Amino acid sequence: MKKIGLFGGTFDPIHNGHLIIAEYLRDDLGLEEIWFVPAKIHPLKNNFEITSPEHRLKMLLLAIQDNPNFKVTDVELQREGVSFTIDTIDELYRRNAALEPRFFFFIGMDNVNELYKWKDPRQILRKAQVVAFGRPGFKADKKAKEFIPLIKFVHVPLLEISSTYIRQRIQKKRSVRYLIPAAVEQYIREKHLYM
Ligand code: ATP
């Protein structure tokens, strides 16, 4: 059995906050690999102009190139329409049956109170170990109460970095050095992204 962490996001662009979370969850939960799952369209996200899947995928590949425990799967990018977590988990079990995977699905702690709005949350919790990461002090809403015992809460060091902040800095021609991997920054400059 292979323990694999799934880290979904828009990754527009991937930044060091994402990489830190992935690395610490991998180590603290004893996982063999982390698979980044870039989303085509985030079902609940306000639609600012999202960078093309090809660019986001390439930036992810550049960001993880020196870490043998990190992989990227384009399962959601290949699928038509919006991607729901339960469909992604089902498809990843199907595609990777030979690995006998046990999936751990990462969500930000803020998402715990949103889980009831997702498609088939009980199935998600049955098929994968949901891992909520963030700072201590989280308060569950009434609607999230039934899910809490099934979720694993993990503390990871968080940085106040977001992709939004990176995009804004690039647009204002400010430095993003040390906020994103150098290879990702080089790619952004070459392709004139977020300008
Ligand atoms: P945006 O600013 O475009 O909303 P983001 O930085 O939140 O992007 P996503 O690709 O949406 O990036 O991130 C995937 C997941 O990682 C989300 O659950 C998000 O909350 C979480 N996340 C991203 N950056 C951090 C951070 N610095 N600390 C904690 N969680 C983070």
Short description:
The protein has helices at residues 16-28, 53-64, 75-78, 85-95, 121-127, 163-171, 182-191; strands spanning 2-9, 33-38, 70-72, 101-108, 129-134, 152-155. It is an alpha/beta fold and 195 residues long. The protein has one domain: Rossmann fold.
What does this structure look like?
The protein is an alpha/beta fold. It has one domain: Rossmann fold. It is built from seven helices and six strands; from the N terminus they run E-H-E-H-E-H-H-E-H-E-E-H-H. It has helices at residues 16-28, 53-64, 75-78, 85-95, 121-127, 163-171, 182-191, and strands at residues 2-9, 33-38, 70-72, 101-108, 129-134, 152-155. A six-stranded parallel β-sheet has the order 3-2-1-4-5-6, with helices on both faces. The radius of gyration is 17 Å and the shape is globular. Adenosine-5'-triphosphate binds next to helix 1 and helix 6.
Please identify the top-level CATH class. Answer: Alpha Beta
- Please give the order of strands in the largest beta sheet: 3-2-1-4-5-6
Bound molecules: adenosine-5'-triphosphate
SSE string, helices as H and strands as E:
EHEHEHHEHEEHH
